Amino acid sequence: MSSLSRVAFFVPAVAACALAAAAEGTAADSQAAVWTEKEVTFVYQGFTTKYSCDGLQDKVRGVLLDLGAEKKGLKVVQLGCSSPTGRPDPFPGVRVKMTVLQPASVPATGQTTVSAHWKPIDLKLRDSFTIDSGECELVEQIRDKILPLFATRNVELKSNCIPHQATASRPSLKLEVLAPDATQSQAGEPPAAR
Predict the structure, then answer these.
(1) Are 173 and 143 in contact, with CB atoms under 8 Å apart?
(2) Is there a smaller number of Cβ atoms within 10 Å at the N or the C end of the chain?
(3) Mean of the per-residue pLDDT values for the chain?
């Protein structure tokens, strides 16, 4: 057997072993979860950055999808808005109805369990915080009022919020969230991407 044919045989065999090992690691890290309905009313109260109701609605919807809320059936409706469309509102709010994954201890009758894993998330509200870092108040409020609706762990918020001042550093919210395994996402379960 020539050295070229040995390489041609050896490379696919090594790749197959690596893929099998990765699949075993994913299967070992999988846990049972169930899709659970959640509701929340979220009213933003900040000093540094103001939002229109449309703007807050878009931001919250994006965050919910990033955190793994099921896209199908996600409802984010404006609430208590007093300013004209597109204008900053003193207290913009949204009412949210969504379905999220929760660990399955004992599924209720009629609930189907799905395989899930812990997925690392680096939550960002804008593409660049260097232009406008005044969103740290919103990031803190999302941590306090929205994250408890999701199955999360290792939540780490790095922020230096000072009311009425944009900070020099961007807020950083890193965490792990329970997400469906890839095979189930492909089989019709909701992907976390927007």
Answers:
(1) yes
(2) N
(3) 78
| pLDDT higher than threshold 60 for residue 91 | yes
- Predicted confidence (pLDDT) per residue in 52-67, tens digit: 999 999 999 999 999 9
Domains in the chain, number:
1
User: Closest Cα to residue 87, out of 123, 54, 122?
Assistant: 54
So what's the pLDDT on residue 1? 55
Element spanning 113, H or E: none
pLDDT value for 47: 84
Please indicate, yes or no, if residue 113 is contained in any of the structural domains.
yes
79 domain-assigned: yes
Range of the domain at 148: 32-186
Structural contact between residues 82 and 68, judged by C-beta atoms closer than 8 angstroms: no
Q: What is the DSSP letter of 147?
A: G
Choose among 24, 32, 186: nearest CA to 114: 32
pTM score, two decimals? 0.74
Short-list 3, 37, 27, 178, CA closest to 111:
37
Contact 120, 174 (CB under 8 A): yes
Q: What is the rounded distance in angstroms from the CA atom of residue 48 to the CA atom of residue 157?
A: 18
Nearest 10 degrees: CA dihedral of 13, 17, 19, 22?
-170
Q: Is residue 73 part of a domain?
A: yes
Q: How far is CA 152 from CA 16, 41, 147, 176, in A?
A: 33, 20, 7, 5
Whether 23 is in a domain gets the answer: no
